[in-house]
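Weekly structure sync, notes
Attendees: PL (lead), two postdocs, one rotation student
Agenda item 3: pending single-chain targets
PL asked that the sequence for the first pending target be pasted directly into the notes so everyone works from the same version. It is reproduced below exactly as submitted, 356 residues in total.
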Amino acid sequence: MPDPALRLSGIEKHYGGTVAVAGIDLDVAEGEFVTLLGPSGCGKTTTLGLIAGFFPPTSGEIYLKGKPVADLPSFRRDIGVVFQDYALFPHMTAAQNVAFGLRMRKVGAAETDKRVQDALDLVKLGGLGARRPLQMSGGQRQRVALARALVINPAVLLLDEPLSNLDLKLREEMRIEIVSIQRRLGITTVFVTHDQGEALVMSDRIAVMNHGRIEQIGDPASIYETPATRFVAEFIGRMNMISGTVTPERGVRIGDQVFAIEVPAGAASGASVHVAIRPERARLTSMRADDGISLPGTVRQVFYLGATREVHVDLASGEKGFVQLHNDGSDAGLKAGSAVWLSASAANCRVLAAGG
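Predicted structure, written out during the meeting:
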């Protein structure tokens, strides 16, 4: 079996008494697009910096195509990096910025000119090589930074929140553009973001990070559909979290009702759990549903969101829930104060340990 393009083995990074990265093991296959996803301060950007060689790990090893590189400086690693602020030289043209890495590697002038033009064509900037960064839009500067990282033909491409400075429409366009280029080149890519939408759209696999560790890693569908912890469930998408306890019959008690839904294998009778339900998988009924869970409540507020409506419910148990409904053009009689049952099938209920 071939070595992965990138391997992190027991990587840790400490700053005095602060642990920024707390032991990460990760393999990234050749041509794979892996996203490090998490909130600010979770260690994702530090991990990217360790891969790039901007600073050494406190412990652990980094392998590029089977070769250890943790002790190598950044310029000796076969890696391209796109920074959050693009880090372009303002006094250079777009073409000169793209050529910079090739000049540092002492590539001949003729080959440099060809590779720069090919890179600019790849990112759809073929006619703009003579412009300086300040003469370009944010999206164009982002493309220049991407071309500069790709022109050296790196073994691994690192992207550090490169879309965060763009407006929403351009950000959505660039998601598709970056993935299209990555697929076309087959380049191994590690992407850092705090934006769950970017991660779901762009990634082959997502590593969800929290407090310097990877809490869960998997393809986007498995991360979204079967979160392993409460943190993952609430960070990826939105989620109803309803408190309950495990019964001796391996059901879940919520208030004075017991529901036959699957509980974690290690959960003991009496253990506190959360029943996690995606708002688009829940439904509102006028009477108790037989399958899964069904909880009485009162509509608190209805929000009109265009394609959908979001209905917030005060549950009789004292907790709050919400349901996302397709907007079919009618109000379905849902008003503040309406009595409803918040229901979900057993297949759409994910029971998670309360402590993690």
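Discussion points:
- The mean pLDDT is 93.
- The longest helix spans residues 168-185.
Action: rotation student to compare against the earlier draft before next sync.
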